[in-house]
Amino acid sequence: MKKSIVALALLSVGVVQAQELVVKIGSSAPLTGAQAHLGKDTENGVRLAIEDYNKKGVTIGGKKVKFELVGEDDQADPKQGTAVAQRLVDAGVKAVIGHMNSGTTIPASRIYNQAGVVMISPSATNPTLTQQGFENVFRVMAHDGKQGPAAAKFALTKLGKKVAVIDDRSAYGQGLADEFEKAVKAGGGSITSREFTTDKANDFMTILTKVKSASPDVIFFGGMDPQGGPMAKQIKQLGIKATFLMGDGGCTPELIKLAGDAITEGSAYCTQPGVPLDSMPDAKFKDRFKARFNAEVQAYSPYSYDATSTVIEAMKTAGSVEPAKYLASLKKASHKGVSGVIKFDEKGDLKDGVVTVYTFKAGKWVPLK
């Protein structure tokens, strides 16, 4: 009799487990290399959202769902990005949160489009991404068509009219620098020089010596913090008096660490799509994030969290985890996320995206009022 009861109990557990639907959500970002701090920040935003939903419990289409993170390292390399995209498709993910860099996101998006997998980037800001006509591609951050002009307006009104522009020749860095340069010229400023480097370089003395000869008021760098930090140091070493300005790739605690005493109050600024962390609707996100991962928010984790929660809410609304069935709900999303309300326009871009300017003060980036 006791054996029968035990057998029935085990059978019952097996039925419950069988009814639980495991839904894989992919994440792709650079988890190794110079940008790993940003990539891990991005992936942990996805991880935290998945953990939160699994704790609450989600039922979709009458089945209890358990979400599972499938994380991949694209090394911020376009070729690796496409390889990763194919692996995620082959793994049967129902959505991809990523990629982090525009240079990996744009080529990877073509693979997701062909496979019919939804992709939401938390941070790829090159406008080209959503100009390809892919109905399954979205982003939750304002693109560089907004960030470039915002940075240019700030530079021209607050810092000076003579501007030198440097970019790292990545899809993100060059794309942002191009938008910035166009806006500077349209606003009556002058470009004293346009130089370029790579996203692997750390010696900028030659190009900075050229920049110095034109005596610019501002040096704008389109690139990420692994290059921005050393560049700021070398600007100081050469005695260049220009103000240093970057986009979101430099709006990180890591840039401050890498630059050391090369940046001081009033000598450096950066722009970041979105509102300041402390002004986000979920002001406690950074505390929850730190408690879970023992790390400070670097830049993109609020947005990867929101991308994840937005796609899960779309699945719930549609009653299906299949991209073809929940896509319509995603397009109509109006989700109250950590960073704000997530709504998409007809291209898949974030509606009403804003850009914030930050100044360096008391050892950290502080938003300007």
From TrEMBL:
Residues 1-18 form the signal peptide. The keyword Ribosomal protein does not apply. Keywords: Signal. Gene3D superfamilies: 3.40.50.2300. InterPro entries: Leu-bd, Peripla_BP_I. It holds the Pfam family Peripla_BP_6. Residues 23-349 form the Leucine-binding protein domain. The keyword Signal applies. Belongs to the leucine-binding protein family. This is Branched-chain amino acid ABC transporter substrate-binding protein. The lineage of its organism: Bacteria, Pseudomonadati, Pseudomonadota, Betaproteobacteria, Rhodocyclales.
